[in-house]
Design brief:
Length: 361
């Protein structure tokens, strides 16, 4: 008997991908779940800050003398945004009328208001730190991260931050999650990735609030070296040789945070809903700190990032097509849900289970 498919015991109804009024309800619900803010790798020293794209720039992660805080990025005077991007500061000074705040959010001075006026403080958001990763405080985030063995090493590993990419997507955030959790399409739509990631024997770790897929890496140096994955493979072989077993782990914390560990590199992303059919994909890129001493470390990172973006563009096409199909079903009020490939699509029913049990408002 062919056992390569499973029928869903649960699914997300079609209207939740297209109906704007339901998207508003979902956006509110997201606030109740673990929320990634940024990492200490971006702000290693006191004075360093990074505006959190994951909070729509409403909060900025700042490393002050007293540690790391998530401080409001909105001025208490006329509510101007205070900081942009990332960098280093001694104080936070509003660009409009020069109100000044300390790096921990304490109000310092209100320009020309006189000495008896005390500038109010910037509110802070409680945070939870796991290794170098910083989340909006949530009671279960430590446990979610601790219970997945494939990411354990990350808690003590050292990475160097390299860049952030923000990509607008024309589809519902849940379609991105489903595509992320689907290894079945790697052979069909990812010509570069399928020669690099061997999905014959994926190792799944599926928990109630997260899932992880680990696959082996194939290093095939004899292909066209102008292709990003071939260049990346060539640098891995040059740096580590062919006897070191390399793996990729795609880990997701439901509902919408993804941590992807590749050989000597990492990407952390969140898919943030903007409306029923639009979302924002914010991706942070990192490289292993040990590569600093490798003469081709930066070139290797560039090849990794190009490989990642090649795959992301292919996924983007796939997600758009799923959105169009589901929009049509929504208009016709038809419900349709297919089977899952076993084992290559096992993450999808786990996400549906999470959504129906813990998320569905
Ligand atoms: S808006 Fe910030 S000082 Fe006026
Ligand atoms: Fe993909």
């Amino acid at each position: 008997m062919n056992n390569n498919h499973l029928f869903p015991s649960t699914f997300i109804p079609i209207k939740w991908y297209s109906d704007e009024s339901l998207a508003v309800v979902e956006q509110k619900e997201l606030e109740n779940h673990p929320y990634y803010l940024g990492s200490k790798f971006i702000i290693p020293h006191p004075g360093n800050y990074v505006v959190s794209e994951f909070t729509f720039k409403n909060f900025v992660l700042i490393h002050s003398e007293n540690g790391i805080n998530a401080v409001s990025n909105i001025c208490r005077h006329r509510q101007s945004l205070l900081l942009q991007g990332y960098g280093s500061r001694k104080t936070i000074t509003c660009p409009l009328h020069y109100w000044k705040y300390a790096l921990d959010g304490k109000g310092l001075s209100a320009y020309d208001f006189g000495e008896d006026y005390q500038c109010p403080d910037l509110p802070t958001l409680p945070i939870t730190q796991w290794g170098a990763l910083i989340f909006k405080h949530h009671e279960s985030i430590q446990k979610i991260l601790d219970e997945t063995s494939s990411i354990k090493k990350l808690k003590t590993e050292d990475y160097l931050f390299r860049s952030i990419e923000v990509v607008e997507c024309d589809y519902n955030w849940k379609i991105f999650m489903e595509t992320y959790l689907d290894l079945y399409h790697i052979n069909t739509i990812h010509p570069g990735l399928r020669k690099f990631a061997n999905c014959e024997n994926p190792q799944w770790e599926i928990n109630e609030f997260s899932s992880s897929q680990t696959v082996d890496v194939m290093l095939l140096p004899d292909q066209n070296p102008s292709l990003p994955y071939t260049a990346y493979a060539k640098y891995i072989l040059d740096y580590a040789g062919s006897t070191v077993a390399q793996k990729i782990t795609w880990f997701s914390i439901y509902p919408n945070t993804m941590i992807e560990i590749y050989p000597y590199h990492m990407a952390i992303s969140s898919i943030i809903p903007l409306s029923a059919t639009k979302s924002l994909n914010v991706i942070e890129f990192y490289m292993d700190a040990a590569l600093e001493d490798y003469e081709h470390g930066e070139a290797m990172h560039q090849a990794f990032k190009e490989s990642y973006m090649e795959t992301a563009a292919e996924d983007d096409m796939a997600c758009q097509k799923i959105q169009l199909g589901r929009n049509n079903l929504f208009k016709s009020q038809i419900e349709d849900h297919g089977p899952y490939h076993n084992p290559l699509e096992l993450g999808i029913p786990s996400f549906y289970q999470f959504w129906n049990t813990h998320f569905r408002p």
